[in-house]
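Homework help board

Subject: predicted structure for assignment chain

Our instructor gave us this sequence and asked us to write out the predicted structure in token form, then describe one feature. I got the tokens but I'm not sure how to describe them. Can anyone check?
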Amino acid sequence: MKAVILAGGRGTRISEESQSRPKPMVEIGGRPILWHIMKIYGAAGITDFVILLGYKGYMIKEYFANYFLHSSDVTIDLRTDTMTTLQSNIEPWSVTLLDTGAETMTGGRLLRAKDHIGDEDFSFTYGDGVTDLDVRKVVEFHRNSGAIATITAVQPPGRYGTLDFDDISSRVHFAEKPRGSSGWVNGGFFVASPAILDYIDDDETIFEQTPLNRLSSDGELSAYRHSGFWLGMDTLWDKINLNEMWNSGKAPWKIWSEDPTVRSDV
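My token output:
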């Protein structure tokens, strides 16, 4: 199964970072959030990626073009212009990088990837959200549902703490960022049949609008409810929060093995 990642948006709500690089290249723990998302898929045995580029997409191309060198110990013989790999911890990934246009909408980006998606079910998500989701469970749920598309529904933590009042004593209890206070939302991490592309008209199509509404109306959209961790990196505060979790050694989304070659196919 292939995983398609939408990585072409400008990330205007985190402009402090996205002015200089694509949002998926914003770093968490010294690695782009895009890498963390790919590791989540890798933990489910999905290692074939199609990354849809747009805004400053050349930076993502350069990252993967140099990935092997940056992740390996090497000896470079300048006299003979040769390089010998001493040790490498490279993931067994195949990464296709497609330029889908700087202004193309989310649906249009998917449509432009049609020739690379093929005839089988595929996964796709956004380049800015991490989770402790086991993608294999979504794939199984999707295959049992019979729907064209399955969306992962999540309950993100509230942006603000809540106050619970005791009407008798006037005392108050403070709960910091309770999970689920925002209700169920689109967490990405879709699984879909290629038939989903028939619901997309052109480059201007925003996938989250007409296509999702039509799929729902046709009874072709199912939802896998994930009650675990999920966080979309929408703001600078989200980036700081994710980095604090990673640096503390308590990142909930780190569900992969330390050995990058370990895999379990779906």
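Reply (TA_rk): Your tokens look well-formed. For the description, you could write something like this. The chain is about 25% helix and 25% strand. That's the kind of observation they're looking for.
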